Amino acid sequence: MNDYNTQRDPLILKEYGRNVQMLVDYLQSLEDTDKRNASAKVLVDLMKQINPSIKEGSEDTQKLWDDLIIMSDFELDIDSPFPKPSRDILTKKPDRLGYKDKKITYKHYGLNIQLLVDHAMTLEDPKEQEEAVIYIGRLMKSFASIWNRDNLDDGVILHNIKELSGGKLDIDLNKVRENNLFNNLVREKPKSYSNNNDRDRGRNKRPRRKRN
Question: Is residue 140 part of a domain?
Fold first, then answer.
């Protein structure tokens, strides 16, 4: 009589295959406790070889023992190094991933602008803080030009900065307009943002060897 997979009981964990399931069934038939425990350890090692992605960590090792119990329909009586899993593990939903819930007031500027504003508020030197506001204003005006062809008014940019900072960052609007402070975005960052990077680059510079 032919023995087809379609005529057999469905596999509980298909990733291990029919042969491992048959070995689990054999374990359940062993009456000697010591032999059953020893055979279970050998079978777990075999399951680890079948799944090379399994590492030596405790969580992965526990998964192997849990899978062994699951394939026995939770009836295998062995001395597992881990607590025996309950049937709820099959229906338990995974925990929801935690996402950053930081609110972005102006999404078209992006989160980095808010981070720059937060940093500017920590500056104690009024001159450095003003330079930071100017730099942020130039960035915001540059970003705004991407989604709005019209030249965004400096007053709107300044209003957005004040709102993002809770009113803690401000600069004279007439000064901004007269000197075009929010125009012509420059590549150089204000000192408050670039000093640390400059120091790091300085450490990495090596003196050139003089040619003979």
Answer: yes
Residue 208: inside a domain, yes or no? no
CA–CA distance, 117 with 138 (Å, rounded to integer): 13
pLDDT at 187: 47
DSSP 7: G
| Cα–Cα–Cα angle for 145, 141, 103, rounded to 5 degrees | 100
Q: What angle do CA 83, 85, 87 make, to 5 degrees?
A: 160
Whether residues 68 and 118 fall in one domain: no
Residue 135's SS3 state is: helix
- Cα separation, 47 vs 75, in Å, equals 19
Q: What's the pLDDT at 79?
A: 92
The segments of the chain whose pLDDT lies below 70 read: 1-8, 55-58, 94-103, 149-150, 184-212
pLDDT score, position 118? 93
Closest CA relative to residue 41, chosen from 21, 64, 12, 73: 64
Whether residue 58 contacts residue 96, with contact meaning beta carbons closer than 8 Å, is answered with no
